[in-house]
Amino acid sequence: MTDLMDFDEVLTKYDPVMGMEVHVELATETKMFSASSAHFGADPNTNVDPVSLGLPGALPVVNEKGVEWAIKIGLALNCSIAESSRFARKNYFYPDQPKNYQISQYDEPIAYDGYLDVVLDDGETWRIEIERAHMEEDTAKLTHLGGADGRISGATSSLVDANRAGVPLIEIVTKPIEGAGERAPEVARAYVSALRDLVKALGVSDARMDQGSMRVDSNLSLRPVGTVEFGTRTETKNINSIKSVEQAVRYEMMRQAAVLEAGGTIDQETRHYQETDGSTSKGRPKETAEDYRYFNDPDLPPVIAPREWVEEIRATLPELPWVRKARIQEEWQLSDAEMRDLVNAGALDLIIQTVEEGTTPDEARSWWVSYLSQKAKEADTELDALAVTPAHVARVVALIKEGKLTNKLGRQAIDGVLAGEGDVDEVVAKRGLEVMQDDGAIEKAVDEALAANPDVVEKIKAGNAKAGGAIVGAVMKATRGKADPATVNKLIAQKCK
């Protein structure tokens, strides 16, 4: 079992220094250097071609849309955009790299020297300095067999799927994040969350961490309190949820502190995050830039980004998430605490989209923050990863307003959508959920409930209106929740005068 130092004790002795590397897959139609489809979810090794398979003689051609979107991300991150940048070959030998090198950018990235301001849980703003945002191609996907959750730890063999090889990728690298102290895990989480919101708002990626279209590598080192020299860092690879980013940083702080306190040394290495318990495990020794033997790719010319083109792209930037959040908070008259709750729940964008589909903010909030958040928790997934859309929620709200569904039936309709039974109207039809329109059938159910509960009837007649709830419950049970509650209450009142 790995020794860990108590988190509070870590802070009395060591100062954490972080660096975040976030890989964002671009949602282009085709790959970065070839015409193969870049779409997610195809059968293994079907979205491939000579370029992405690294076959001899195959030559890459740059995807212009990928360059445009890289510039868009750089501008949104307040970066300088290079008028001329170059692609390089990053050489390493690993099963996920068919060519045994990756086309990336090294000393001439397309975007550099930016920043992103993120808001912490208490409202404090923390500026994250961005060193670079560069273009590259993604690697193939490895599926490890025999380990837990498809991860390499404990695996006995691995399968390679080259569909992802060559998909356009932007790697966003921060400068060292110093001085966060006890808030380092929170700062890491807030940064990745803000970055995910940003790229989604730009429309350049779906940023689905559960599908690998946004992945985080978290670098962490410790130095004794009061010193300035950085310690040896570890890099926890391919973290795929916002919560896991925070947990990985916290765990590495406690693990490294325990090693140092025992007189050991920290190995410069990659580590694998374990979703099961929030721990990290040893990977491989971490290379330096020299080990990759970067050199300019002779098959690709420099990427030229004229100022006029950059300014045209700048003009297409949408309302950025933090600007929209401030506007929405004012328009909806939300307190800072209410807004933070929506953001932390990952619900804000979903609520906004649901309002755009025709609901009120309160109606949208009531569904996403209560019922659907509970469903996401039960499924152990992010709220936006649920198989239900703002349009689905808006349709349920509309049917409730029309009197065709009750709230209870609406939840059943959403359950059907989540179960893959179709859209809302299809689920309502298949499950027979629509509110009963037959007043005679409802009246019959009310009469039977009253006859079966004479003591409750006497209480109602004596002026105890709350006692009617038992009759309403009996009627709803008899009609499988499809009786209109207003009609039921009206009939009870008439019959118990």
Automatic annotation (TrEMBL):
<dbReference type="GO" id="GO:0050567">
    <property type="term" value="F:glutaminyl-tRNA synthase (glutamine-hydrolyzing) activity"/>
</dbReference>
<feature type="region of interest" description="Disordered">
    <location>
        <begin position="265"/>
        <end position="297"/>
    </location>
</feature>
<dbReference type="InterPro" id="IPR004413">
    <property type="entry name" value="GatB"/>
</dbReference>
<keyword id="KW-0648">Protein biosynthesis</keyword>
<comment type="similarity">
    <text>Belongs to the GatB/GatE family. GatB subfamily.</text>
</comment>
<dbReference type="InterPro" id="IPR018027">
    <property type="entry name" value="Asn/Gln_amidotransferase"/>
</dbReference>
<dbReference type="InterPro" id="IPR017959">
    <property type="entry name" value="Asn/Gln-tRNA_amidoTrfase_suB/E"/>
</dbReference>
<comment type="function">
    <text>Allows the formation of correctly charged Asn-tRNA(Asn) or Gln-tRNA(Gln) through the transamidation of misacylated Asp-tRNA(Asn) or Glu-tRNA(Gln) in organisms which lack either or both of asparaginyl-tRNA or glutaminyl-tRNA synthetases. The reaction takes place in the presence of glutamine and ATP through an activated phospho-Asp-tRNA(Asn) or phospho-Glu-tRNA(Gln).</text>
</comment>
<dbReference type="InterPro" id="IPR006075">
    <property type="entry name" value="Asn/Gln-tRNA_Trfase_suB/E_cat"/>
</dbReference>
<dbReference type="GO" id="GO:0005524">
    <property type="term" value="F:ATP binding"/>
</dbReference>
<dbReference type="Pfam" id="PF02934">
    <property type="entry name" value="GatB_N"/>
</dbReference>
<keyword id="KW-0547">Nucleotide-binding</keyword>
<dbReference type="GO" id="GO:0050566">
    <property type="term" value="F:asparaginyl-tRNA synthase (glutamine-hydrolyzing) activity"/>
</dbReference>
<dbReference type="GO" id="GO:0006412">
    <property type="term" value="P:translation"/>
</dbReference>
<dbReference type="Pfam" id="PF02637">
    <property type="entry name" value="GatB_Yqey"/>
</dbReference>
<feature type="domain" description="Asn/Gln amidotransferase">
    <location>
        <begin position="349"/>
        <end position="496"/>
    </location>
</feature>
<comment type="subunit">
    <text>Heterotrimer of A, B and C subunits.</text>
</comment>
<keyword id="KW-0436">Ligase</keyword>
<protein>
    <recommendedName>
        <fullName>Aspartyl/glutamyl-tRNA(Asn/Gln) amidotransferase subunit B</fullName>
        <ecNumber>6.3.5.-</ecNumber>
    </recommendedName>
</protein>
<keyword id="KW-0067">ATP-binding</keyword>
<dbReference type="InterPro" id="IPR014746">
    <property type="entry name" value="Gln_synth/guanido_kin_cat_dom"/>
</dbReference>
<feature type="compositionally biased region" description="Basic and acidic residues">
    <location>
        <begin position="284"/>
        <end position="296"/>
    </location>
</feature>
<dbReference type="GO" id="GO:0070681">
    <property type="term" value="P:glutaminyl-tRNAGln biosynthesis via transamidation"/>
</dbReference>
<dbReference type="InterPro" id="IPR023168">
    <property type="entry name" value="GatB_Yqey_C_2"/>
</dbReference>
<dbReference type="InterPro" id="IPR003789">
    <property type="entry name" value="Asn/Gln_tRNA_amidoTrase-B-like"/>
</dbReference>
